[in-house]
Amino acid sequence: MPVPSTTPDWAFEREHWRRGHFRVAGVDEAGRGAWAGPVTVAAVILPGTAQDYPFRDSKQLPAALREEYAAEVRRVALSWAVEHAWPEEVDRLNVLGATHAAALRAIARLDPLPQALVTDYLRLRTPLPLSAPPKADALSYSVAAASLLAKTERDRLMAELDLRHPGYGFAAHKGYGAPAHRAALGELGVSAAHRRSYAPIARLLSGEADPPRLL
Residue 129 burial by CB count (10 A; 0-12/13-18/19+): exposed, middle or buried? Predict the structure, then answer.
């Protein structure tokens, strides 16, 4: 898989720097669309030196490169934190509410705390100045860094869930609605790792005979 041609920059961070907010945290999530496992949110404050990094949108990178870049994020960041919204919280709050709650927990754990935020279209309720453009993980170094931590940490957890709940293939499809996942649900039923409020899972739990369809 080639490295994506789109190179992030510091445009969104510079808008905050110009207002005197020099600790800008990038925030991104992984797993919102999955049927199982957590939504994982990372927050990262990079040094505000406007230097170039190799960080890119994690979804567009091969796994080995994601791991390499995630290690670099942890090495260079002024501060970083990762939080999870597990299926129970997703079912209780809905996926957007749970994502926002996990994001605010991650931001609160940063030390030093941020003075402003750039998110990938997450319009968080926060007193901090906030930029929330779409596709920010491809446009902002800070958000790209957060996407790398969120993706690699969630992938690690899905591999653990694969061992805890064998047969579903979590390590391969990461809990998304792949054909192998749908087939496993038809054979094994719903596990404790699944989001029971999601329509395909809810249909199974209600006794619908057919395996769940793609959302």
Answer: middle
* Same domain, yes or no: 22 and 122: yes
Q: Residues annotated as binding site for a divalent metal cation?
A: 28-29, 120
Known binding-site residues equal 28-29, 120
Flag whether 1 is in a domain: no
Residues with Cβ < 8 Å from 201, sequence gap 6 or more?
35, 185, 190, 194, 195, 212
Q: At 155, which CATH number?
A: 3.30.420.10
In a domain, 80, yes or no: yes
Question: Beta-strand (E) ranges in the chain?
Answer: 24-30, 39-45, 79-85, 116-119, 130-131
Our count of domains for the chain comes to: 2
Answering whether pTM is above 0.70, one says yes
The tens digit of pLDDT for each residue in 112-168 reads 999 999 999 999 999 999 999 999 999 999 999 999 999 999 999 999 999 999 999
Residues 6+ apart with CB under 8 A from 150: 28, 29, 30, 31, 40, 41, 42, 58, 82
117 within 8 A of 25, measured Cβ to Cβ: yes
Per DSSP, the three-state class of 40 is: strand
123 and 173 assigned to the same domain? no
